Backbone:
């Protein structure tokens, strides 16, 4: 089954749940010139379907559902559909603003949202990519990267009784004062399921921040390489946090390298429950600032998750069955009563089965079925993975695998087909490999932002991946 078809079915299924009336699909840009024009024409339960491309300027940023519950989704996923907010000071913009009571049938799905920039106090300076005020949308399968907020939520900010659901997203390299990746404040209830939150920076809560009687539930997610002064991965202030089947690893902070918890006595206590998760430092990775209850519950571990790069990102788990030498301790270590998602932690893209693995699951996978599957794996063994991150700013990792030692050529080409830089040219050993492109040409000069292609030649086999460089 083709990915495009799976993508459309997943999004349109939301519509059937949202309304019994027939839903209309409004297409951008073939029928409506901008995303906002499609939104403005939609009625309850409609879908605004956005074609591949990079969308900029008025009508393609500061998008507002206006209280109408609908699905706004890309046709082919976030790697091919970019909302570039082009925000800076004093020209302030973000991707989406929910503030009219939208509910969970309001869906944003399948976009890269980047270059949002907000400055000011309160909500004015919050939610670099997405702001939710007393609204409860579903935010699914997006890449939220390179956004900035001077106050809260560099990527996403939920405020004032919002109950958002964030699923299957990659949230990375965002910056804020509090909640570099995501901020939740003032009696919000936010559920995070199957997300990667990485490389975000804040003073408080590098990855995730919960404050002022909010509740945050984190399940099946990977939180890594975020930085803050307090709570590198997660800060929980006068709020409740529940973490299950998740990895918090290699985050850093002056206090609470992974988690910082603190309440305000006597009325506003904080609470944290961690179970079936991998937390670096174990209980010592959690700082208890007082007026709080911390429950380090059953079957947590403190062990290197052994991340490896794979076809769609850098946070697969090392597994012997997929060709790695070591077995990640997070494999088959999740809660036995939790269902196994349709996804994978394996670099050979075999769908997970049996017991749940801890951490993020990539949603594209293949089911192992006898000889047909083995032939597919032989094909995949000569594979060029999608670069990660994508889109990217300063550098991106390209992973590839070889079934046997051979001569290869791997290079970067511009949109006109001209060679920009050779990354690999020569004999390479069998197995998985990766190389980093720093956005420079063969002379060491930075290239302009735009679309580039990574092309590999292995004997008679060639493969190409599309990349987006942001400047």
Residues:
């Amino acid at each position: 089954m083709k990915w495009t078809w799976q993508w459309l079915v997943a999004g349109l299924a939301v519509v059937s749940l949202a309304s019994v009336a027939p839903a209309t699909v409004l297409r951008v840009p073939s029928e409506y010139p901008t995303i906002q024009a499609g939104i403005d024409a939609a009625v309850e339960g409609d879908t605004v379907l956005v074609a591949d491309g990079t969308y900029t300027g008025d009508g393609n940023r500061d998008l507002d559902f206006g209280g109408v519950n609908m699905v706004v989704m890309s046709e082919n996923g976030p790697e091919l559909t970019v909302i570039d907010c082009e925000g800076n000071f004093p020209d302030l913009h973000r991707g989406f603003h929910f503030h009219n009571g939208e509910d969970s049938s309001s869906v944003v799905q399948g976009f890269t949202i980047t270059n949002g920039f907000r400055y000011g106090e309160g909500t004015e300076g919050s939610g670099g990519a997405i702001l939710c005020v007393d609204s409860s949308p579903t935010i699914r399968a997006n890449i939220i990267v390179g956004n900035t907020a001077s106050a809260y939520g560099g990527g996403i900010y939920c405020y004032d009784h919002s109950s958002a659901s964030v699923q299957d997203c990659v949230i990375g390299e965002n910056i804020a004062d509090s909640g570099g990746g995501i901020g939740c404040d003032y009696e919000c209830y936010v559920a995070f399921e199957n997300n990667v939150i990485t490389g975000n920076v804040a003073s408080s809560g590098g990855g995730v921040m919960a404050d002022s009687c909010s509740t945050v539930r984190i399940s099946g997610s990977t939180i890594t390489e975020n930085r803050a002064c307090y709570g590198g991965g997660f800060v929980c202030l006068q709020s409740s946090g529940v973490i299950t089947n998740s990895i918090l690893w290699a985050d850093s902070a002056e206090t609470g390298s992974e988690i910082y918890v603190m309440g305000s006595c006597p009325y506003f206590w904080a609470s944290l429950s961690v179970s079936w998760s991998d937390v670096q430092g174990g209980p010592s990775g959690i700082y208890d600032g007082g007026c709080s209850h911390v429950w380090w519950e059953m079957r947590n571990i403190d062990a290197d998750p052994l991340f490896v790069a794979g076809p769609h990102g850098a946070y697969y788990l090392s597994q012997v069955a997929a060709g790695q030498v070591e077995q990640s301790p997070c494999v088959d270590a999740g809660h036995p009563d939790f269902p196994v998602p349709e996804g994978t932690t394996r670099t050979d893209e075999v769908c997970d089965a049996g017991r749940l693995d801890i951490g993020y699951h990539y949603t594209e996978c293949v089911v192992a079925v006898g000889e047909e599957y083995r032939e597919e794996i032989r094909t995949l063994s000569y594979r060029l993975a999608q670069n990660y991150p994508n889109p990217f700013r300063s550098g991106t990792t390209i992973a590839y695998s070889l079934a046997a030692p051979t001569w290869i050529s791997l290079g970067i080409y511009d949109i006109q087909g001209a060679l920009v830089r050779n990354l690999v040219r020569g004999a390479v050993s069998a197995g998985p490999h990766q190389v980093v492109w720093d956005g420079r040409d063969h002379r060491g000069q930075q290239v302009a932002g735009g679309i580039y292609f990574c092309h590999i030649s292995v004997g008679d086999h060639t493969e190409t991946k599309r990349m987006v460089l942001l400047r």
Observations:
- Helices lie at 3-18, 35-41, 370-380.
- Residues 3-18 form the longest helix (16 residues).
- The first strand starts at residue 25 and ends at 28.
- The chain has three helices and 42 strands.
